[in-house]
Design a protein that fits this description.
Blueprint lengths: L1 H16 L6 H12 L3 H16 L2 H10 L9 H30 L7 H29 L4 H8 L1
Length: 154
């Protein structure tokens, strides 16, 4: 019982801290000015952010593979399955936002536009890994409250 509640609390904290793409309006002026983008170019960057944040097929496949042999909640594998998905999401989040940061600060030469699309896609796509691991695990752990769980987390 304690493991379920710990996992639920950890999931809520991860979910609350993984929404940097929702703050695009805050950092987009800096991205625009530092890279010399016009508004239409920034809009395309934003499209890659939106596509990345909503294309969660890979995270779903990874979750299915990582949690395939999950038995009861006391089974040790049930704890590690979602954390594998979280780890992949965290690596992807770091890579995407780190390279965006390097570009904005001028630490690396101004990247080609296609690379900026990739960086933004990777950064936003990481959200799908957190969403998938958190929501699916919470629904599996609390099947009688699945609607409430999804409502709280989303």
């Amino acid at each position: 019982e304690g493991t379920r509640w710990f996992a639920a609390a950890a999931s809520v904290l991860i979910q609350a801290s993984s929404g940097a793409s929702y703050a695009f309006g805050i950092y987009s002026p800096i991205l625009k000015s530092s890279q010399g983008y016009d508004q239409s170019t920034l809009d395309v960057v934003s499209v890659f952010k939106d596509v990345g944040a909503n294309a969660g097929v890979i995270s779903g496949f990874l979750y299915s593979a990582a949690c395939r042999s999950v038995g009861s909640l006391e089974d040790e594998k049930s704890v590690w399955g979602p954390w594998v998905v979280h780890a992949v999401g965290a690596i992807q989040c770091f890579a995407g936002y780190f390279f965006l940061w390097l570009a904005v600060t001028g630490t690396i030469p101004k990247p080609r536009l296609e690379l900026m699309y990739l960086f933004m896609f990777l950064a936003a796509h990481s959200q799908t890994f957190f969403n998938t691991a958190n929501v699916v695990t919470a629904v599996r752990n609390f099947p009688d409250y699945s609607g409430t769980v999804v409502g709280i987390m989303k």
